[in-house]
Specification:
Elements (H helix, E strand, L loop, with lengths): L10 E4 L7 H7 L4 E5 L2 H6 L1 H11 L3 E5 L8 H14 L3 E6 L1 H16 L8 E2 L9 E5 L11 E6 L4 E6 L7 E4 L9 H20 L5 H23 L4 H21 L3 H13 L3 H16 L6 H9 L12 H13 L16 H8 L4 H4 L6 H11 L1
Parallel strand pairs: 1-9, 2-3, 2-4, 4-6, 5-8, 6-9
Antiparallel strand pairs: 7-8
Length: 382
Amino acid sequence: MDNFTFSVPQNIIFGKGSISRLPELVKEMGCSHAFIISGPHLKKMGIVGRCAEQIEAAGMKADAFTGTEGNPSVDTVDKATAAFKESGADCIIALGGGSPMDVAKAVGVLARYGGSITDYEGGGKVPGDIIPLIAVPTTAGTGSEVTAFSVITDHSRNYKLTVFSYKLIPAYAVLDPELVMTAPVSVAAACGIDALVHALEAYISTAASPFSDAMAEKAMELIGANLRRYVANRGDAEAASAMLVGSLFAGIAFSWARLGNVHAMSHPVSAYFNAAHGVANAILLPTIVEYNALADQGKYRTIYNYIAKIPVYEDEFVPEMLAEELRDLNESLGIPSCLSAVGVTEDKIAAMAVDAMKSGNIAVNPRSSTQKDIEALYRKAL
């Protein structure tokens, strides 16, 4: 067994109605003025206003920035940082899916240390603690409430940069299943597959450990048994709860084991063609799983049995079966089968492969990959 380290340096709160605890948590962090970072949809639904009202009713102040978008940009981070500074707030509440959380983490860095988020690209560049942060996911998929990453799009170079630091992990993660029970079908499907990819890639990563494996296996158990139910009916409280907790465990798993070729390749797809992150992951997943089958050491059957409706015994299984099961899952959830369906064109494959090779996830993918391998995988998925 290889050496490994881990910690879970935050407080995680799960339960229906747990969003009502925000005022209490703001006070526990020693703060009195919250700045909510969210998106226009949650503002329109009244959820941002409800959070602000709860905080103000407890005798504290609340302001909000609701201009985050899918695949958030450097420009959005700059705008949100300026708004945070102008407000005079002393803590941040990230409310939404992965995009608001990515922005909130970036704002937490810039508001304390200055500069541009591009200055912190890569690992080891965040010098210390960021602005106190509470994360409240409203999608069951990204796991960003427990991860050490912020992914921001730099449009000047069509590139999704990643800031990695365990200082980015929010102080509190508040998981209220009622918040994910109104997600549209397309969002539920894309985010649900994203969570599954997090767990799957962390599980087969060459950086996996017994700790990350435990998190990943529980995540796949919860997601595999509930993803179809959740997409079919977001009002299914049991399925919604399972997906939210499964996403959490998957996020913890990949914070410590990293990911693989799926994520390395999906980021350029989103950067060049603005494809939804979860959809890009889902489309690439069967192709990459098929490619990685050569390196399987027995984990593929475990993954298959968590996802498939009918489990198989060892003597009945070959690794390629997992790729076919994932294709069937995508089809049942209404996810496109190829990259061309989300606008990807062959003329960008070489450039996307160059950017994919810059990802640290390539290094921990179970099967080694060259730039030519990545180009071939893009073409196969096209």
